[in-house]
Amino acid sequence: MHRLTHAEIMRIRRTQGATVLLFITDRCPVGCAHCSVDSRPDSPRITDFALFEEIVDRLCADPVSSMIGISGGEPFIERRGLTYAARRIAEAGKDLVVYTSGVWGAAADPPQWIHEVLDRCRCVYLSTDAYHEAGTGPDRFVGAARAISGHGLPVVVQVVDEGGALARAEELLRAAFGPAWQAHAELVPTKGLPHGRGAALFVRDRRVAGRQLGRCKLADSPVVRYDGRVTACCNETVLMGGGPAALRRNCADGAEVDTAIKEFGRHPLFRALTTAGGGPLTTHPRFGDLADRRYTDICGLCWAMARRAGSAEDDALLRAIGLLGEGRRG
What structural domains and CATH numbers belong to the chain? Predict the structure, then answer.
């Protein structure tokens, strides 16, 4: 059975239509101070399981996608939803990637249903840093890492790269696997996201002119929430109801979810952002005044464009700009 590395997963995520992320719950018991979706122990979770199962079945029936990720919140607190989704994704022949804090790793041997989920995965992302460790403690991380690796899975350890966080993560991996820990896991440094509770911790002061911004590599990586909300990308603020309405759809059933994903996939603005990039798009008359405005990142420029894109389906120039950038994609 093929196991996915971080590099392979990122390549798939940058392939048009190849992947979707299933946001399975808002709830998480860890309470990290930097949580980008503001997950809490009492946050909303799946209540309409008929709708959830319909959504999962639709995602699994998509003939184009090859990989489905599952995140939250903490996916492993959603036993019924996670076990159903993992089984259906595996039955559909798609690669399953799960993102977790490892809060479930306290026991020396996790419950059987967790083993069954792990057995259906192709890779598991396990987060640790000062914020996670404050809520889970080192023993849960070590236990989760060993359980994941016990299924022959790559353990991709995501670490917000602050202070000695990378050194501490390596120390935990040595505790889990000994000096040869790199045979079991890889460390991926990340930046803290200024969304959710993280907005109070990660303030980005540097601003760049719109004309200087490049491509958004994830503007066509849709996220589907358990309650039918679909977003064009993985921006957490958009997923939680903020930002431009053009980046979000609230769907009542699986068919509407399927339609929303397809509409986002062919939307000329979002396609152009992933191919040509934000800077070249400011040459479009509709966006020309954004060229010299300054933004902290591509999301700010995207939001400004999305708010004025209107009906872009018949915008030949917008489509042309996107097509000119197709060769740069990847």
Answer: 6-203 (3.20.20.70), 229-328 (no CATH)
